[in-house]
Specification:
Elements: H1 2-20, H2 25-40, H3 43-47, H4 51-58, H5 61-89, H6 96-106, H7 112-127, H8 133-158, H9 162-185, H10 199-231
């Protein structure tokens, strides 16, 4: 399970670096500075952690359920950026609200990214016993400040085509979603007896899906009708 979590952390950082490669230099520097400052000032909180406490967090079902929600939000936002970026690059993002959402998603580094930074700081505190906590924290902050722009630039140089980076970003987040399920469930899933099957929940979800499909169908038909009417 520890291997899965470490792989999930690496993929989260890689996703953020790929995402930053679509931004301008000032946005990349701004995200790097914010990340470095957060790491630099987080050493008092990191010094209070312990290995047993982190292990207890990973074994807490309620906490892992909260992390599963964070992973779901993270993957949803990143995949939304990929889909909206394709429309934006093809000139299909004509509405102002779409352009605003695109730029918000473009400059949003992610949620898991900051969790990974703090976890890396805590790990360094354990690896370097006896070293001053502020020195460890600000050394990591300086490394983040230097490496983030460099790796973002290298990813842009190695993959100059935006569509290639978008495809890779989409696949990475898909893998994050799959690995997140494995990491958060943590082998606690059990088979449910047939007697405990809740027909009310199934009917409620089916009715909700059916209602959404009908509303979406008629909404699409109405928009298509008025769009053709304007063209004439």
């Amino acid at each position: 399970m520890q291997t899965v979590i470490i792989s999930l952390m690496i993929l989260s950082v890689w996703s953020t670096i790929l995402k930053m490669s679509f931004g301008k230099i000032r946005s990349v520097l701004l995200i790097s500075i914010i990340s470095a400052l957060l790491i630099g000032f987080a050493w008092p909180l990191a010094a209070e952690q312990s290995k047993t406490q982190i292990a207890d967090w990973l074994a807490d079902p309620s906490l892992m359920a909260d992390i599963a929600v964070i992973i779901t939000i993270e993957v949803g936002l990143q995949m939304s950026f990929c889909l909206m970026s394709l429309s934006y690059q093809d000139g299909q993002a004509e509405k102002k609200i779409k352009r605003i959402l695109y730029h918000i998603l473009k400059y949003f580094p992610g949620l898991l990214y900051f969790v990974v930074l703090f976890t890396s700081l805590v790990s360094l505190v354990f690896v370097l016993p006896g070293a001053p906590f502020p020195a460890i924290s600000w050394s990591l902050a300086a490394s983040v400040l230097l490496l983030l722009p460099l790796l973002s630039f290298l990813s842009q140089r190695l993959m100059p085509a935006p569509h290639t980076r978008l495809e890779l970003l989409f696949l990475i987040n898909l893998l994050i979603a799959l690995m997140g399920i494995v990491a958060t469930v943590n082998s606690r899933t059990s088979m449910i007896a047939v007697d405990n099957f809740k027909w009310e929940s199934l009917l409620a979800v089916s009715a909700l899906i059916l209602f959404g499909s009908i509303v979406g169908f008629f909404w699409h038909r109405i928009r298509f009708h008025f769009k053709n009417k304007k063209s004439y």
